[in-house]
Write a structure and sequence with these properties.
heterodimer; A: mainly beta; 5-stranded antiparallel β-sheet; 3-stranded antiparallel β-sheet; 1 helix; about 10% helix; globular; B: mainly beta; Jelly Rolls; 6-stranded mixed β-sheet; 2 helices
Chain lengths: ~200, ~210
């Protein structure tokens, strides 16, 4: 071994993380927080439940889609509360912008959300639920997101959703006292460990 | 959805300005790069199969269908696919290039999320580009040329002010092209082709000729 004056490396020098691809058709990929974005891609069958983006606008709910089903490229602005039907089960507000892509495909629809872009973001998330009667946020909770820690935040969000379902008090709107229905928490938010970090 | 009673009923344009960047009235703002909040976005249209001839009407930044995409990694230059309905994430720091579209290697400090959408009906194929907005003064865009034969770095310019991206990019191209010595590899002696800008509408004749080459 030629030593050019450096301390000999005892272990393999890790290669830098390289570019990677996510196929929209791969429903197993789940969420990944790798590099500067937390990314999720998903597929829904033509006749099945689909992933729709809902955004809360002044205590009302906007459905982000086109009537003719054509592709949508939409920015979820930093500070806007949103949920993705049949994915998250909760409403989320983060301290960075996010982009949403929703497009028809031969088998149904594909969707992508990419959260982040700015150095160190997202670093904070507000999680709540929207009262179906008056649009008031219910059971608002704030979480810090550690660097590259969006998937660990999702585990906390899952626990918060489980608690929300278990206690009708947590599901009661502070404004109109309507009780939010139990939400589906069986939806896969997170990549399986074997998928994490795969190219 | 259990929000029927509180759903926004009016057109989305009334409550969220420019809610869909693919809207025909909005999309033209993204033909180059446009910063929107934390992000910089681009929307590229696959305009024709091949490179446009000089003088032929063309979008400022467009993609020919025959292009290929390349990155430089630990094993040298690799072709990276653009798979319809996928997200290709080019990690920050990776030299990358799109054949016939920009004649240099782009190296930046932001991850780029590239989403190819295939044509459908009357809609042309498009490529969506999502990246964070570089922090002025600390995060850079670099325009570099490597030898085609041995990947030796030949020439590079950099900018840490994204608001002047296109000005810096064109200046880098013209500086590289101005001196033939820049194009000759100091390692292997190979004579490399001229560079060209991502803005095809500003091509000089020799730059357009180079666009057909690589």
């Amino acid at each position: 071994m030629v030593n050019l004056g450096f301390i000999p490396q005892k272990e393999t020098i890790p290669a830098p993380d390289m570019s990677f691809v996510r196929l929209f058709s791969d429903a197993r990929a789940g969420w990944q927080h790798r590099g500067q974005f937390a990314i999720w891609t998903g597929v829904s069958a033509a006749e099945g439940p689909r992933h729709r983006l809902l955004e809360r606008v002044s205590n009302r709910v906007a459905v982000i889609e086109r009537e003719d089903g054509s592709p949508v490229f939409h920015k979820i602005a930093n500070g806007s509360a949103f949920t993705i039907e049949n994915l998250t089960g909760f409403w989320l507000t983060v301290d960075s912008d996010a982009m949403w892509v929703d497009t028809p495909c031969p088998t149904g629809r594909y969707a992508l959300i990419a959260i982040g872009g700015r150095t160190g973001k997202p670093s904070r998330a507000v999680l709540d639920w929207t009262c179906p009667s008056c649009g008031t946020p219910i059971n608002v909770q704030t979480f810090e997101i550690p660097p590259l820690g969006f998937t660990s935040f999702l585990r906390k969000a899952h626990a918060a959703t489980t608690a929300f379902n278990a206690d009708p008090q947590l599901r009661t709107c502070p404004s109109c006292h309507a009780v939010h229905p139990v939400v589906d928490i069986s939806m896969p938010n997170e990549a399986q460990p074997s998928q994490e970090g795969e190219s | 959805m259990h929000y029927h009673g509180i759903q926004v009923e009016e057109p989305l344009d009334k409550v969220i300005r420019d809610w869909d960047y693919l809207d025909e009235k909005v999309i033209k703002h993204f033909y180059g790069f446009k910063d929107v909040g934390d992000l910089v976005l681009g929307i590229r249209t696959i305009e024709r199969d091949k490179v446009a001839e000089l003088g032929q009407k063309a979008m400022p930044v467009a993609l020919p269908a025959i292009r290929k995409n390349y990155e430089i990694g630990p094993n040298g230059v690799v072709e990276v696919p653009r798979i319809p309905f996928s997200a290709h994430i080019t990690r920050a720091g990776t030299p990358h290039r799109t054949q016939y579209v920009f004649g240099y290697w782009h190296i930046n400090d932001k991850d780029e999320v590239i989403v190819p959408l295939p044509p459908a009906g009357d809609r042309p194929g498009r490529v969506l580009i999502i990246q964070g907005k570089p922090e002025t003064g600390t995060e850079t865009d670099r325009f570099a040329w490597y030898c085609d034969k041995c990947v030796t770095l030949l020439f590079m310019r950099e900018s840490s002010n994204f608001s002047t991206f296109w000005v810096t990019e064109v200046a880098a191209v013209r500086a590289y092209n101005a001196d033939p010595k820049n194009q000759i590899c100091p390692t292997c002696g190979h004579k490399n082709p001229l560079g060209y800008s991502g803005m095809q509408t500003i091509d000089r004749p020799e730059e357009r000729a180079a666009r057909f080459v690589w």
